[in-house]
């Protein structure tokens, strides 16, 4: 084998090792950042797989269960009679819409102690966006009547 061919083989194999290493790291990163959306009932029925995955769980915040400690929160999520104890320790405080009876989405991990440890928290208050009683579109409110252009 000539000297030039030997250099090309060494260079090519070094590039192949680098490319394979980067591909493997990209695969690991994608697996690590993947999160599964589950209901509280599904979470309780997942078995040992539940402890190995990043999860997203949604539900209503049980009234009176919120305990705030600076940017951290401890609360209960409720969905169809199932409850889940959530401890949020994210980098930002809970959103302003995070209140009793609000819909919340917690992202994090479930541990053997039965607590869901969230590092992200999203919340919305459905009543904030619902039409107020007496306004068009509210339940039980009369439908808006079309205006007539007679007498112009």
From the alpha carbons, calculate the radius of gyration and give it in angstroms.
27 Å
Globally, the shape reads: elongated
| Average residue pLDDT | 79
CATH topology of the largest domain: OB fold (Dihydrolipoamide Acetyltransferase, E2P)
Secondary structure tally: strands: 7
User: What's the architecture of the largest domain, going by CATH?
Assistant: Beta Barrel
Query: What distance separates the N and C termini?
Result: 99 Å
Give the full name of the CATH homologous superfamily of the largest domain: Nucleic acid-binding proteins
Order of helices and strands: HEHEEEEEEH
Overview of this protein structure:
- By secondary structure, this protein is of the alpha+beta class.
- The chain contains 3 helices and 7 strands, in the order αβαββββββα.
- β3 and β4 form a beta hairpin.
- The protein has 2 domains: 33 residues; 91 residues, OB fold (Dihydrolipoamide Acetyltransferase, E2P), CATH 2.40.50.
What are the main properties of this structure?
2 domains; alpha+beta; 152 residues; five-stranded mixed barrel; 3 helices; elongated; OB fold (Dihydrolipoamide Acetyltransferase, E2P)
């Amino acid at each position: 084998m000539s000297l030039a061919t030997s250099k090309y083989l060494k260079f090519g194999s070094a590039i192949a090792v680098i490319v394979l290493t980067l591909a493997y790291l990209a695969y690991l990163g994608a697996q690590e950042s993947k999160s599964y959306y589950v209901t509280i009932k599904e979470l309780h029925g997942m078995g040992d797989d539940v402890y190995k995955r990043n999860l997203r769980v949604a539900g209503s915040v049980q009234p009176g269960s919120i305990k705030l400690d600076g940017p951290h929160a401890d609360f209960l999520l409720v969905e169809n009679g199932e409850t889940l104890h959530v401890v949020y320790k994210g980098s930002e405080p809970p959103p302003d819409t995070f209140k009793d009876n609000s819909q919340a989405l917690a992202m994090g991990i479930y541990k053997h102690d039965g607590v869901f440890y969230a590092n992200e928290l999203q919340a919305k208050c459905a009543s904030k966006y619902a039409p107020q009683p007496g306004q068009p579109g509210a339940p039980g409110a009369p439908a808006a009547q079309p205006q007539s252009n007679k007498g112009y």
